[in-house]
Amino acid sequence: MSHRLSFSRLLPCVWWARPDVDCPDDPPGEKAQIGTCVHGLSEEHLTGKVFDRTKHTMQVLTQALDIFKNLKPWLDTWKAQPGQKIVEGRLRYDTEDGRAFPTPRRGEDGYTRPGDSQLTGEIDLVTIYPNEELAEVIDLKTGQKRNSNESQLRGYSVVVKARYGVKHVRSAFLYARKTKLDLEPWMEMDEDALDAEAGKLRRTLRTLPQAKPVKGDHCYRCPLGKSRFGYCPEWVVDDRYAPDPIAEAQLYDDNARLAF
What integer best gives the mean pLDDT of the chain? Predict the structure, then answer.
């Protein structure tokens, strides 16, 4: 079994992604499903690729459509601006040889699990300016800002450099709500910063099999969800599971809100 790490899950703790750690992922909640719908509707609008609405409940679709209606004018403006546009580009990056190449989504024909040295990510919106050797990366978010992870943007920037041969990448989160949009300030990375981040990604995957659990403010974002309290060694108390893991999860989540 290969690791479960991806660009959207680059956290200070990567223990959960070790191939030998048998921990279940919580199924996506309603908010995550709404985000998936917004991404699907946006891709359909920009590229014409049909989004399958039958996989989601009417409640989820209704909320996603409300967000998309507010987002649509911004997407039209983005598409009309100069530069080469890439929408929902799914790329796999090999941290050892520095290659980035397209890959199918899970469940699509030709999909394979990433190798030990590879990471996969789906980059929402990319603009390439070849004459300036510049790229802009925008990651669309429908959740709370405290759930954002700048490591994701830095990783995407490395992939875009490898794939499109640019020397400078600026990236940002775009937060979409039903009544407002908020584009965060650009994070700029030059060639030296991109190379340094590529080295960090390589070291992360090389040492992943020996990664230890690290408890901290990032735990509430753990892909394992509340199940971490039964599986993560850092959440085991006196050789037994926490007496009330759900209550402790809520307490830790409240503390994390204050930290972010």
Answer: 86
Handedness of CA 243, 244, 246, 247 (dihedral sign): negative
Q: Taking Cα atoms as reference points, which of 231, 223, 213, 233 lies closest to residue 26? A: 223
How confident is the model over 15-65, as pLDDT tens digits?
A: 989 988 877 666 778 998 999 999 999 999 999 999 999 999 999 999 999
The mean pLDDT value for 153-160 works out to 97
pLDDT tens, 41-50?
A: 999 999 999 9
**What domains appear along the chain, each with residue ranges and CATH number?**
7-212 (3.90.320)
